[in-house]
Amino acid sequence: MIQPARTRQLELLSPARDAEIGIEAVNHGADAVYIGGPGFGARASAGNPIEDIERLVAHAHRFGSKIFVTLNTILRDDELEPARRMAWQVHEAGVDALIIQDMGLLELDLPPIQLHASTQCDIRTPEKAAFLANSGFSQIVLARELTLPQIQAVAQALPADTVVEFFVHGALCVAYSGQCYVSHAQTGRSANRGDCSQACRLPWTVTDDQGRIVAHEKHVLSMKDNNQSANLAALVDAGVRSFKIEGRYKDMGYVKNITAHYRQLLDEVLEGRPGLSRASSGRTTFLFTPDPDRNFNRGSTDYFVQGRQQDIGAFDTPKHAGLPLGHVIRVGVDHLEVELDEGVGPLNNGDAITWFDLQQELRGVPVNTAEPLDASGRRFRVVPKDPLSELKDLRRGTVLMRNRDMAWDRLLRKKSSDRRVAVDLHLEETREGFALSVTDEDGHHARVELAHAHEAAQQPERAEAALREGLAKLGTTIFAAREITLALRQPWFLPAAALNALRRDAIAALETEREACRERLQRRAPAEPPVPYPEDTLSYLANVYNQKARDFYARHGVKIIEAAYESHEALGDASLMITKHCVRFSLSLCPKQAKGVTGVQGTVRAEPLTIQNGDEVLTLRFDCKPCEMHVVGRMKKNVLHQARAAEKQAAREGVPIQFYKTRPAPHPAR
């Protein structure tokens, strides 16, 4: 059952790479949008200037939607002051909340802005979630790996006014968020600082402890994409109130389509739950049919929400195969003849087709030209961009998919939605003329008067219709007329120009009233005295990268605080990735799977496996009690050399790099 005390609003939270995409997210029904500010976001190349943030905030607030800015990287000591200044800048720009990872920020003079705990905080337990709520966080972004019962346990441990946020769509990091260091160990690019090299999407050869190949060049660390479309009602029942779409690197078409998809699904949930409501105003009409399968995806999984599943990996390819298209019926010298499957839309110039070669590797090529061969609309002559001789295993009978559809892309480049706030208009006569009252769906009210003579209409019925039609003309505003009432002794004649001016003034007054009544989200005061952290010892996995973060944890009772992996103190073998995904389980080599199988029980053990890509070799170790996998390796020497060189160069330039260390940095081996 839904918890009576928990907030009754459901929030659809969409991503935005830039302000234009954020505006369209709002137009397509987002109750909130998260976007990178000028710096320090966990997507290194998705920052935005303050002026653009201000423009997005102004648009969103018209609908009561909110804007959250990501400040969710771990920070060096020399970055804390610039981050603090940025927090004040976005606060002054009207931003509603900051999404943060680094606890050092809580030790600074931050503005009175609401704080949300990023999924980078690795929030998996009720104890950690409750600690963060008691430390001043109002919204908690849970780990994607949690099951419904685990989500419910976290929600029940939180204060009733704490919002539980959960990812419902998009790309999945195979590691627990904030618990992956493979990129930094191999390249010096830190995932915790928004610059992941995505080693998890590479093909790896898996060998056992005797050197035997278990899987050859498979993408064993690459997950399918998250899709919780079928689980929204269950997530609501578990206590989730903010439904987050991944994708701050994604394009406009993705954000429009996926936002519209989940807007429709959440509205269906709301229709059956009269005690719940949307977290912003207005209704959205879509000028297309949303379809999440049309965007880039690696296949779909609901991950662990319904328990551990066998088929969560995109092991064959990390690319987008696309939707079924048809098959090759003939191969010419420079073209193909293709027959489309029943119900598939026509091929277009600029489309992209894909297929699997005989080794089950995904191949693809753009289409230069596509010409129908007959009136059926199912046979096409296709000239690919590349020579046919270079297209491996593209032959008669090859099954084709399409992963770029120009007709779909063109559809989403145009206006594709219309979001309106319902408003009731009441026209009455006054001694000096007329007054128009407007009341929106949220109860905001405005009234304006117009001095004008009462002129009898020559055609009363036509005059009344003209008044109603004139009042309903709200096309350039965010409003749509729901009910129009006339309180007149008779249908007076009112010139169109006068009626239009009266309507415009009333709507402008209503927008002013809506903004005046908008309440800014409040920062939660941390508990006093400070609540103890659930543990008294923190390893590098806590990502403590500055002295302020160390002070925060010490203030909350932690006795031993190791430095972050990026501080280069964990130089030996270390867990470079901790994940709920288990390669043994996915390859049917899990000891628990073998239980009860005649002739197998007791012979399958969770010995380590080795994965290799080129010169990169990592060890997979299996912790069967919590059902977790550790990817173990060590930092490359050249990463240490590059870091030391960068520190020396910064010192010479008078801008020293400073970060939390627990011991002097060792000299790298020569």
TrEMBL record:
Residue ranges annotated for the Peptidase U32 collagenase domain, each copy included: 401-514
Coiled-coil residues: none
PROSITE patterns reported in the protein's UniProt record: PEPTIDASE_U32
Pfam families: DUF3656, Peptidase_U32
InterPro entries given in the database record: Pept_U32_collagenase, Peptidase_U32, RibuloseP-bd_barrel, RNA/ubiquinone_mod_enzymes
Protein name per its UniProtKB record: U32 family peptidase
Classification lineage: Bacteria, Pseudomonadati, Pseudomonadota, Betaproteobacteria, Burkholderiales
